[in-house]
Amino acid sequence: MTFPSANSSPDADPDAAPLDWLGQPIRCRECDHVVLNREGLCRKGTACVRDRRARRVDGFFRKHPELANDYLQHSYFEVRAVAAKYASVMRLMPLLADPEPEVRARAAQRLPVERVKALANDPEPRVRMVLANRLEGASLVAMLADEDYIVRVNVVRRLPPELVPLAVHDAESEVRRWAARRLPEERLQLLMFDEEPLVRLVVAERLPPSRLAAMAQDEDLRVRFTVAERAPPELLPSLLDDPDELVRDVARTRLEE
Question: Can you give the residue ranges of the LRV FeS4 cluster domain (predicted)?
């Protein structure tokens, strides 16, 4: 029998019929919670632990969190993942070895951070993302070496500003853009001449006006335009000779103000 995986979740279809995780019609009379159903405490298509859709499973556990512990070993990953959201933290450690990343990630979100550090080396980026958003200190810095750039972006977003310079040589420009957003102002020169124009643009937006002269000859129009918008008055005359009319117009308008 082939079980559904995280890559084939039916939850993307908001109008999905109430089928169970094996694709069969749900029959409430066959459910272990038929008594709850008769009392109106769960409902097929809305709050149902047998449904294949995570939102409906979540609706069930929102009403009955005390039952979540009983479903941490369910065969369907969506049920395990949602149950982990409501179950006792004391029962979550085994889920760190779950075959589905969605389940491991949910457990990693709730367990004490000291218990989940090993997942910084998890094969799935979505799990490592959880760690990037929870770790601190040297453990967080170590994740700057993660192979997935989106994980590294989250690390840079959380690093103390004084440690952000560690990311200025990252191979991925999006990581360096975040570094440019978070660098201490006095360290912005580290990315002033970055090869990626969008990184330099962030620098031009943040540099004190008194330091913008160094970027007035940048090869990218967007950077020079930003310089023209923010430059101190004494720099504006030199921008009247810019090769692009947009930059010249901004400089001229500001000089006439």
Answer: 19-70
